[in-house]
Structure to design on (420 residues):
Protein backbone atom coordinates (compact mmCIF):
# COMPACT_ATOMS: atom_id res chain seq x y z
CA UNK A 1 0.00 0.00 0.00
CA UNK A 2 0.93 3.65 -0.49
CA UNK A 3 0.43 6.59 1.86
CA UNK A 4 0.07 10.00 0.32
CA UNK A 5 -0.11 13.60 1.56
CA UNK A 6 -1.38 15.85 -1.25
CA UNK A 7 -0.71 19.56 -0.84
CA UNK A 8 -1.21 22.63 -3.01
CA UNK A 9 2.15 22.30 -4.79
CA UNK A 10 3.42 18.77 -4.21
CA UNK A 11 2.31 15.30 -3.26
CA UNK A 12 4.42 13.34 -0.74
CA UNK A 13 4.21 9.59 -1.18
CA UNK A 14 5.39 6.85 1.14
CA UNK A 15 6.04 3.79 -1.01
CA UNK A 16 7.74 0.79 0.62
CA UNK A 17 8.98 3.02 3.47
CA UNK A 18 10.63 5.41 1.03
CA UNK A 19 9.53 9.01 0.52
CA UNK A 20 8.82 10.29 -3.00
CA UNK A 21 7.94 13.92 -3.77
CA UNK A 22 6.01 14.67 -6.95
CA UNK A 23 4.53 17.89 -8.29
CA UNK A 24 0.71 17.77 -8.47
CA UNK A 25 0.93 17.58 -12.26
CA UNK A 26 3.34 14.61 -12.14
CA UNK A 27 1.31 12.96 -9.41
CA UNK A 28 -1.92 13.08 -11.43
CA UNK A 29 -0.23 11.26 -14.31
CA UNK A 30 0.77 8.33 -12.11
CA UNK A 31 -1.31 5.17 -11.91
CA UNK A 32 -1.12 2.85 -8.95
CA UNK A 33 -1.84 -0.87 -8.72
CA UNK A 34 -1.81 -0.78 -4.96
CA UNK A 35 -4.27 0.92 -2.62
CA UNK A 36 -3.45 4.58 -1.94
CA UNK A 37 -4.37 5.92 1.49
CA UNK A 38 -4.31 9.69 1.25
CA UNK A 39 -5.17 13.07 2.67
CA UNK A 40 -5.65 16.09 0.40
CA UNK A 41 -5.91 19.83 1.11
CA UNK A 42 -5.88 20.73 -2.57
CA UNK A 43 -9.52 21.57 -3.36
CA UNK A 44 -8.80 21.62 -7.10
CA UNK A 45 -8.07 17.90 -7.31
CA UNK A 46 -10.11 16.40 -4.45
CA UNK A 47 -12.99 15.40 -6.72
CA UNK A 48 -10.55 13.72 -9.15
CA UNK A 49 -9.29 11.49 -6.34
CA UNK A 50 -12.70 10.53 -4.98
CA UNK A 51 -13.54 8.71 -8.21
CA UNK A 52 -10.33 6.67 -8.34
CA UNK A 53 -11.39 3.31 -7.01
CA UNK A 54 -8.13 2.30 -5.31
CA UNK A 55 -7.86 5.70 -3.57
CA UNK A 56 -9.00 5.86 0.05
CA UNK A 57 -9.38 9.21 1.86
CA UNK A 58 -8.13 8.87 5.45
CA UNK A 59 -9.39 12.31 6.55
CA UNK A 60 -12.72 11.10 8.05
CA UNK A 61 -10.77 8.74 10.32
CA UNK A 62 -8.41 11.33 11.76
CA UNK A 63 -9.67 13.01 14.93
CA UNK A 64 -8.05 16.01 16.58
CA UNK A 65 -9.14 17.96 19.63
CA UNK A 66 -8.61 21.72 19.19
CA UNK A 67 -10.47 25.01 19.54
CA UNK A 68 -8.84 26.12 16.28
CA UNK A 69 -11.31 26.32 13.38
CA UNK A 70 -10.35 25.66 9.74
CA UNK A 71 -7.18 23.62 10.25
CA UNK A 72 -6.02 21.72 7.15
CA UNK A 73 -5.81 17.94 7.52
CA UNK A 74 -2.06 17.91 6.72
CA UNK A 75 -1.47 20.40 9.53
CA UNK A 76 -3.59 18.29 11.88
CA UNK A 77 -1.47 15.23 11.04
CA UNK A 78 1.81 17.08 11.64
CA UNK A 79 0.49 18.20 15.06
CA UNK A 80 -0.72 14.72 15.97
CA UNK A 81 2.87 13.51 15.52
CA UNK A 82 4.13 15.81 18.31
CA UNK A 83 3.21 15.75 22.02
CA UNK A 84 5.16 18.81 23.15
CA UNK A 85 6.80 21.49 21.09
CA UNK A 86 6.46 23.67 18.02
CA UNK A 87 5.35 22.09 14.75
CA UNK A 88 6.47 23.81 11.56
CA UNK A 89 5.31 22.53 8.17
CA UNK A 90 7.19 24.63 5.62
CA UNK A 91 5.62 24.17 2.20
CA UNK A 92 3.52 26.48 -0.01
CA UNK A 93 2.51 28.02 3.32
CA UNK A 94 4.51 27.77 6.54
CA UNK A 95 2.19 26.64 9.32
CA UNK A 96 3.44 26.98 12.89
CA UNK A 97 1.54 25.23 15.69
CA UNK A 98 2.06 24.90 19.41
CA UNK A 99 1.51 21.58 21.15
CA UNK A 100 1.55 21.27 24.95
CA UNK A 101 0.94 17.93 26.68
CA UNK A 102 -0.72 16.55 23.52
CA UNK A 103 -3.01 19.61 23.46
CA UNK A 104 -3.13 21.97 20.47
CA UNK A 105 -2.81 25.57 21.72
CA UNK A 106 -3.32 27.26 18.33
CA UNK A 107 -1.03 28.36 15.54
CA UNK A 108 -0.40 30.69 12.65
CA UNK A 109 0.36 30.72 8.93
CA UNK A 110 3.25 32.47 7.20
CA UNK A 111 3.61 32.58 3.42
CA UNK A 112 6.01 29.95 2.08
CA UNK A 113 9.20 31.19 0.41
CA UNK A 114 7.66 30.93 -3.09
CA UNK A 115 4.66 32.97 -1.88
CA UNK A 116 7.08 35.64 -0.58
CA UNK A 117 8.48 35.82 -4.12
CA UNK A 118 4.92 36.26 -5.43
CA UNK A 119 4.34 39.04 -2.88
CA UNK A 120 7.48 40.94 -3.87
CA UNK A 121 6.78 40.51 -7.59
CA UNK A 122 3.27 41.91 -7.11
CA UNK A 123 4.71 45.19 -5.76
CA UNK A 124 7.15 46.14 -8.51
CA UNK A 125 9.21 44.66 -11.33
CA UNK A 126 12.22 45.92 -9.36
CA UNK A 127 11.43 43.30 -6.71
CA UNK A 128 11.01 40.42 -9.18
CA UNK A 129 14.01 38.55 -7.80
CA UNK A 130 14.13 35.10 -6.27
CA UNK A 131 14.85 34.84 -2.57
CA UNK A 132 18.44 33.77 -1.95
CA UNK A 133 18.50 31.12 0.77
CA UNK A 134 22.23 31.68 1.30
CA UNK A 135 21.76 35.31 2.41
CA UNK A 136 23.59 36.16 5.64
CA UNK A 137 21.21 37.06 8.45
CA UNK A 138 23.89 38.76 10.57
CA UNK A 139 24.81 41.40 7.96
CA UNK A 140 22.58 44.33 7.00
CA UNK A 141 21.74 43.96 3.29
CA UNK A 142 23.40 46.16 0.68
CA UNK A 143 21.30 45.39 -2.40
CA UNK A 144 17.74 44.47 -3.40
CA UNK A 145 18.23 40.70 -3.64
CA UNK A 146 19.83 40.59 -0.20
CA UNK A 147 17.15 43.00 1.12
CA UNK A 148 14.17 40.80 0.20
CA UNK A 149 15.93 37.54 1.12
CA UNK A 150 17.05 38.84 4.53
CA UNK A 151 13.61 40.31 5.33
CA UNK A 152 11.62 37.21 4.37
CA UNK A 153 13.91 34.63 6.00
CA UNK A 154 14.81 36.63 9.11
CA UNK A 155 11.18 37.56 9.82
CA UNK A 156 10.21 33.86 9.55
CA UNK A 157 13.11 32.87 11.81
CA UNK A 158 12.29 35.50 14.44
CA UNK A 159 8.58 34.67 14.77
CA UNK A 160 9.31 30.94 15.08
CA UNK A 161 12.01 31.68 17.68
CA UNK A 162 9.58 33.94 19.55
CA UNK A 163 7.01 31.11 19.71
CA UNK A 164 9.45 28.35 20.54
CA UNK A 165 11.65 29.90 23.23
CA UNK A 166 13.59 26.79 24.40
CA UNK A 167 11.03 24.20 23.32
CA UNK A 168 11.78 21.66 20.64
CA UNK A 169 10.80 22.61 17.08
CA UNK A 170 9.70 19.86 14.69
CA UNK A 171 10.14 20.79 11.02
CA UNK A 172 8.70 19.11 7.96
CA UNK A 173 7.85 20.18 4.40
CA UNK A 174 9.94 21.24 1.41
CA UNK A 175 11.76 24.06 3.24
CA UNK A 176 11.69 22.30 6.62
CA UNK A 177 15.29 21.08 6.51
CA UNK A 178 16.51 24.53 5.43
CA UNK A 179 14.63 26.38 8.20
CA UNK A 180 15.64 23.78 10.82
CA UNK A 181 19.24 24.84 10.16
CA UNK A 182 18.60 28.13 11.99
CA UNK A 183 17.70 26.50 15.32
CA UNK A 184 19.67 24.50 17.87
CA UNK A 185 16.49 22.96 19.26
CA UNK A 186 15.25 21.79 15.82
CA UNK A 187 14.30 18.32 14.65
CA UNK A 188 13.71 17.80 10.95
CA UNK A 189 11.36 14.94 10.14
CA UNK A 190 10.20 14.74 6.54
CA UNK A 191 7.90 11.86 7.48
CA UNK A 192 5.98 13.75 10.18
CA UNK A 193 2.64 13.73 8.31
CA UNK A 194 3.05 10.39 6.55
CA UNK A 195 3.84 8.59 9.80
CA UNK A 196 0.48 9.73 11.18
CA UNK A 197 -1.26 8.43 8.04
CA UNK A 198 0.39 5.05 8.53
CA UNK A 199 -0.59 5.01 12.22
CA UNK A 200 -4.18 5.98 11.37
CA UNK A 201 -4.31 3.10 8.91
CA UNK A 202 -2.88 0.66 11.49
CA UNK A 203 -5.46 1.69 14.12
CA UNK A 204 -8.27 1.49 11.55
CA UNK A 205 -7.13 -1.95 10.43
CA UNK A 206 -6.89 -3.20 14.03
CA UNK A 207 -10.37 -1.84 14.86
CA UNK A 208 -11.80 -3.73 11.90
CA UNK A 209 -10.12 -6.91 13.12
CA UNK A 210 -8.66 -7.26 9.67
CA UNK B 1 4.29 74.88 -6.06
CA UNK B 2 3.48 71.27 -5.31
CA UNK B 3 5.78 68.51 -4.02
CA UNK B 4 4.91 64.98 -4.96
CA UNK B 5 6.15 61.48 -4.05
CA UNK B 6 4.83 58.96 -6.56
CA UNK B 7 4.90 55.32 -5.46
CA UNK B 8 3.62 52.07 -6.92
CA UNK B 9 0.15 52.38 -5.38
CA UNK B 10 -0.32 56.00 -4.32
CA UNK B 11 0.96 59.50 -4.91
CA UNK B 12 1.57 61.73 -1.87
CA UNK B 13 1.18 65.43 -2.64
CA UNK B 14 2.17 68.41 -0.54
CA UNK B 15 -0.06 71.28 -1.58
CA UNK B 16 0.06 74.46 0.50
CA UNK B 17 1.64 72.56 3.40
CA UNK B 18 -1.18 70.01 3.44
CA UNK B 19 -0.76 66.35 2.55
CA UNK B 20 -3.05 64.76 -0.04
CA UNK B 21 -2.96 61.06 -0.91
CA UNK B 22 -4.25 59.93 -4.31
CA UNK B 23 -4.26 56.55 -6.00
CA UNK B 24 -2.06 56.52 -9.12
CA UNK B 25 -5.19 56.38 -11.29
CA UNK B 26 -6.70 59.43 -9.55
CA UNK B 27 -3.38 61.24 -9.64
CA UNK B 28 -2.97 60.81 -13.40
CA UNK B 29 -6.36 62.43 -13.99
CA UNK B 30 -5.38 65.59 -12.11
CA UNK B 31 -4.07 68.65 -13.90
CA UNK B 32 -1.96 71.23 -12.15
CA UNK B 33 -1.50 74.91 -12.91
CA UNK B 34 1.46 75.14 -10.57
CA UNK B 35 4.87 73.55 -10.95
CA UNK B 36 5.05 70.03 -9.57
CA UNK B 37 8.40 68.93 -8.08
CA UNK B 38 8.32 65.18 -7.87
CA UNK B 39 10.11 61.91 -7.39
CA UNK B 40 8.76 58.69 -8.90
CA UNK B 41 9.65 55.02 -8.34
CA UNK B 42 6.76 53.80 -10.48
CA UNK B 43 8.41 52.76 -13.75
CA UNK B 44 5.02 52.40 -15.47
CA UNK B 45 4.25 56.11 -15.34
CA UNK B 46 7.70 57.78 -15.33
CA UNK B 47 7.62 58.45 -19.07
CA UNK B 48 4.15 60.02 -18.77
CA UNK B 49 5.48 62.53 -16.26
CA UNK B 50 8.61 63.47 -18.18
CA UNK B 51 6.51 64.95 -20.99
CA UNK B 52 4.36 67.10 -18.71
CA UNK B 53 5.90 70.52 -19.01
CA UNK B 54 5.19 71.80 -15.49
CA UNK B 55 6.53 68.59 -13.94
CA UNK B 56 10.09 68.69 -12.62
CA UNK B 57 11.90 65.49 -11.55
CA UNK B 58 13.95 66.20 -8.40
CA UNK B 59 15.74 62.83 -8.42
CA UNK B 60 18.90 64.01 -10.23
CA UNK B 61 19.41 66.65 -7.52
CA UNK B 62 19.20 64.28 -4.57
CA UNK B 63 22.54 62.85 -3.49
CA UNK B 64 22.99 60.07 -0.95
CA UNK B 65 26.13 58.33 0.21
CA UNK B 66 25.64 54.60 0.67
CA UNK B 67 27.19 51.29 -0.29
CA UNK B 68 23.65 49.94 -0.91
CA UNK B 69 22.90 49.40 -4.60
CA UNK B 70 19.41 49.79 -6.11
CA UNK B 71 17.78 51.98 -3.47
CA UNK B 72 14.55 53.65 -4.60
CA UNK B 73 14.55 57.45 -4.53
CA UNK B 74 11.62 57.57 -2.06
CA UNK B 75 13.57 55.37 0.32
CA UNK B 76 16.65 57.57 -0.09
CA UNK B 77 14.56 60.63 0.79
CA UNK B 78 13.09 58.99 3.91
CA UNK B 79 16.63 58.10 5.05
CA UNK B 80 17.95 61.61 4.35
CA UNK B 81 15.35 62.92 6.82
CA UNK B 82 16.87 60.91 9.70
CA UNK B 83 20.36 61.25 11.22
CA UNK B 84 20.20 58.39 13.70
CA UNK B 85 17.66 55.60 13.98
CA UNK B 86 15.56 53.16 12.01
CA UNK B 87 13.59 54.41 9.02
CA UNK B 88 10.45 52.48 8.10
CA UNK B 89 8.44 53.40 5.01
CA UNK B 90 5.36 51.18 5.12
CA UNK B 91 3.60 51.30 1.76
CA UNK B 92 3.26 48.69 -1.04
CA UNK B 93 6.56 47.41 0.32
CA UNK B 94 7.86 48.02 3.83
CA UNK B 95 11.43 49.28 3.60
CA UNK B 96 13.49 49.30 6.78
CA UNK B 97 16.80 51.21 6.86
CA UNK B 98 19.39 51.87 9.50
CA UNK B 99 20.97 55.31 9.85
CA UNK B 100 23.94 55.93 12.16
CA UNK B 101 25.53 59.37 12.45
CA UNK B 102 24.00 60.42 9.11
CA UNK B 103 25.47 57.27 7.53
CA UNK B 104 23.29 54.67 5.81
CA UNK B 105 24.23 51.21 7.13
CA UNK B 106 21.93 49.22 4.80
CA UNK B 107 18.38 47.97 5.01
CA UNK B 108 15.82 45.44 3.95
CA UNK B 109 12.42 45.10 2.27
CA UNK B 110 9.35 43.34 3.64
CA UNK B 111 6.15 42.92 1.63
CA UNK B 112 3.51 45.54 2.48
CA UNK B 113 0.29 44.29 4.08
CA UNK B 114 -1.53 44.17 0.71
CA UNK B 115 1.35 42.13 -0.74
CA UNK B 116 1.00 39.68 2.18
CA UNK B 117 -2.65 39.26 1.14
CA UNK B 118 -1.47 38.57 -2.42
CA UNK B 119 1.02 35.99 -1.09
CA UNK B 120 -1.62 34.14 0.95
CA UNK B 121 -4.15 34.23 -1.91
CA UNK B 122 -1.55 32.74 -4.26
CA UNK B 123 -1.23 29.65 -2.04
CA UNK B 124 -4.86 28.56 -1.72
CA UNK B 125 -8.40 29.90 -1.94
CA UNK B 126 -8.66 28.93 1.74
CA UNK B 127 -6.19 31.72 2.52
CA UNK B 128 -7.99 34.36 0.44
CA UNK B 129 -8.82 36.46 3.49
CA UNK B 130 -7.84 40.04 4.22
CA UNK B 131 -5.38 40.63 7.03
CA UNK B 132 -7.15 41.91 10.14
CA UNK B 133 -5.14 44.79 11.62
CA UNK B 134 -6.99 44.42 14.94
CA UNK B 135 -5.68 40.89 15.55
CA UNK B 136 -4.21 40.40 19.04
CA UNK B 137 -0.49 39.63 18.95
CA UNK B 138 -0.40 38.24 22.50
CA UNK B 139 -2.90 35.42 21.85
CA UNK B 140 -2.18 32.33 19.75
CA UNK B 141 -4.61 32.34 16.80
CA UNK B 142 -7.60 30.01 16.72
CA UNK B 143 -8.76 30.42 13.11
CA UNK B 144 -7.40 31.10 9.62
CA UNK B 145 -8.05 34.85 9.53
CA UNK B 146 -6.32 35.32 12.88
CA UNK B 147 -3.55 32.93 11.78
CA UNK B 148 -2.53 34.90 8.68
CA UNK B 149 -3.01 38.31 10.35
CA UNK B 150 -0.96 37.35 13.42
CA UNK B 151 1.84 35.83 11.32
CA UNK B 152 2.17 38.74 8.91
CA UNK B 153 1.95 41.53 11.49
CA UNK B 154 3.92 39.86 14.27
CA UNK B 155 6.75 38.84 11.92
CA UNK B 156 6.97 42.44 10.67
CA UNK B 157 6.94 43.75 14.26
CA UNK B 158 9.64 41.31 15.45
CA UNK B 159 12.13 42.01 12.64
CA UNK B 160 11.78 45.79 13.09
CA UNK B 161 12.19 45.39 16.87
CA UNK B 162 15.25 43.20 16.29
CA UNK B 163 16.85 45.91 14.11
CA UNK B 164 15.89 48.83 16.31
CA UNK B 165 16.73 47.63 19.81
CA UNK B 166 16.33 50.90 21.80
CA UNK B 167 16.94 53.27 18.90
CA UNK B 168 14.25 55.61 17.65
CA UNK B 169 12.10 54.30 14.77
CA UNK B 170 10.76 56.79 12.23
CA UNK B 171 7.64 55.58 10.42
CA UNK B 172 6.05 56.94 7.27
CA UNK B 173 3.80 55.54 4.53
CA UNK B 174 0.22 54.32 4.45
CA UNK B 175 0.66 51.74 7.22
CA UNK B 176 3.27 53.78 9.09
CA UNK B 177 0.95 55.13 11.75
CA UNK B 178 -0.52 51.67 12.35
CA UNK B 179 2.89 49.97 12.71
CA UNK B 180 4.23 52.82 14.88
CA UNK B 181 1.53 51.87 17.39
CA UNK B 182 3.51 48.72 18.28
CA UNK B 183 6.63 50.57 19.47
CA UNK B 184 7.35 52.88 22.41
CA UNK B 185 10.33 54.39 20.62
CA UNK B 186 8.34 55.22 17.45
CA UNK B 187 7.86 58.52 15.70
CA UNK B 188 5.26 58.70 12.93
CA UNK B 189 5.95 61.39 10.34
CA UNK B 190 3.82 61.22 7.23
CA UNK B 191 5.86 64.07 5.73
CA UNK B 192 9.25 62.34 6.03
CA UNK B 193 9.82 62.06 2.26
CA UNK B 194 8.03 65.25 1.22
CA UNK B 195 10.04 67.36 3.67
CA UNK B 196 13.23 66.21 1.95
CA UNK B 197 11.77 67.16 -1.45
CA UNK B 198 10.99 70.63 -0.14
CA UNK B 199 14.49 70.94 1.33
CA UNK B 200 16.07 69.76 -1.94
CA UNK B 201 14.10 72.41 -3.78
CA UNK B 202 15.15 75.11 -1.30
CA UNK B 203 18.84 74.21 -1.65
CA UNK B 204 18.53 74.07 -5.44
CA UNK B 205 16.82 77.45 -5.55
CA UNK B 206 19.46 79.00 -3.26
CA UNK B 207 22.30 77.55 -5.37
CA UNK B 208 20.77 79.11 -8.49
CA UNK B 209 20.58 82.50 -6.71
CA UNK B 210 16.91 82.55 -7.66
Amino acid sequence: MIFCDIGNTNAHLLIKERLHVKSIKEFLKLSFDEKVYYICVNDNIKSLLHVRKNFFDLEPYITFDTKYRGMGIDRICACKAVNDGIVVDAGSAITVDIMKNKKHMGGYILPGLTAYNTAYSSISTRLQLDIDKDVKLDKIPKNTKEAISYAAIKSIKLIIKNSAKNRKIYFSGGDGEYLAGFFKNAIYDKMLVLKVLQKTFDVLKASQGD
